[in-house]
């Protein structure tokens, strides 16, 4: 006999030759691997009202432990049943490993209707970290493309404040990915706040970022033209020698030579070159 268990977002799990049991609510605990920590009270009240009127139409799925049961699928129905005052709940008890529990909890979380882009990205990261999966393996398991997974994970590189804005639906995930093109975090936060306050579309935000970049490039070009030719020549020579962008500036008869690096590896390589030159 096949029994169909339903997830919180209408995904169906088929179990074979397993009977529905009525399990006491006080023996059931939440899935310890459940990434979802908060539940909408209004939606839980609505579900409780439905259960009060029609009962529980689909059993939840549990895993038996030494001290009772852990929820595999159906935590919202479990919580709503507590609100109604039920003492038992129909359930299917399945045998599964910790890894199975972990993966199913994360996948179920990914299928929530109210999932925001940051929560989605965090779920992909949790799958990768907890189950030691690559981006390609996550993409295959979830029937998504690897570039899609990679683009979602990039959102986790945003400043905390911008991630909060996406969680609160003040900005979309697409706004967040667009803002990643801004390298300066203060500028990024400022543009994010402005985009929220003025209801910028993603396209308009992109245009503003490109405009700011073009303006900066023009300013740098203008500054470069004002430098004496021999300084520009020295910058080119140092750049060729050390493989790094170099800026030489003079203010009030004081000069600065600045080397640019974009990673720790480039920094270490530059220091080694400078030390080797100093010892000559």
TrEMBL record:
The keyword DNA-binding applies. Residues 213-236 are annotated as: Disordered. One of its GO terms (molecular function) is DNA binding. Gene3D superfamilies: 1.10.10.2830, 3.90.1530.30. The keyword DNA-binding applies. Pfam families: HTH_ParB, ParB_N. It is found in: Cytoplasm, Nucleoid. Residues 213-223 have a biased composition (Low complexity). Residues 21-110 form the ParB-like N-terminal domain. InterPro entries: Chromosome_partition/occlusion, HTH_ParB/Spo0J, ParB/RepB/Spo0J, ParB/Sulfiredoxin_sf, ParB_N. Keywords: Chromosome partition, DNA-binding. Its main location: cytoplasm. One of its GO terms (biological process) is chromosome segregation. One of its GO terms (cellular component) is nucleoid. Belongs to the ParB family. This is Chromosome partitioning protein ParB. It comes from Staphylococcus arlettae.
């Amino acid at each position: 006999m096949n029994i169909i268990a339903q997830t919180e977002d209408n995904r169906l799990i088929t179990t074979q030759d397993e009977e529905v049991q009525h399990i006491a609510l006080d023996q059931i605990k939440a899935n310890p691997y459940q990434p979802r920590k908060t539940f909408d009270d209004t939606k839980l009240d609505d579900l409780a009202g439905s259960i009060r009127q029609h009962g529980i139409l689909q059993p939840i799925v549990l895993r038996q432990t030494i001290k009772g049961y852990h929820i595999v699928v159906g935590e919202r129905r479990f919580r709503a049943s507590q609100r109604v005052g039920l003492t038992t709940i129909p359930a299917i008890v399945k045998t599964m490993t910790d890894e199975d529990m972990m993966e199913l909890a994360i996948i179920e979380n990914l299928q929530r209707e109210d999932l925001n882009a940051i929560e989605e990205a965090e779920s992909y990261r949790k799958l990768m970290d907890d189950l030691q999966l690559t981006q390609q393996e996550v993409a295959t398991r979830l029937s998504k493309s690897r570039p899609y997974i990679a683009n979602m994970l990039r959102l986790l590189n945003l400043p905390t404040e911008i991630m909060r804005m996406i969680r609160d639906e003040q900005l979309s995930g697409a706004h967040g990915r667009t803002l990643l093109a801004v390298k300066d975090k203060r500028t990024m936060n400022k543009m994010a706040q402005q985009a929220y306050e003025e209801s910028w579309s993603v396209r308009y935000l992109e245009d503003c970022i490109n405009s700011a970049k073009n303006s900066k490039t023009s300013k740098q070009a203008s500054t470069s033209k004002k430098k004496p030719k021999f300084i520009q020549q020295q910058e080119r020579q140092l750049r060729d020698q050390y493989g790094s962008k170099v800026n030489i500036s003079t203010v009030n008869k004081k000069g600065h030579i600045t080397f640019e690096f974009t990673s720790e590896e480039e920094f270490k390589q530059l220091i080694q070159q400078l030390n080797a030159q100093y010892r000559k």
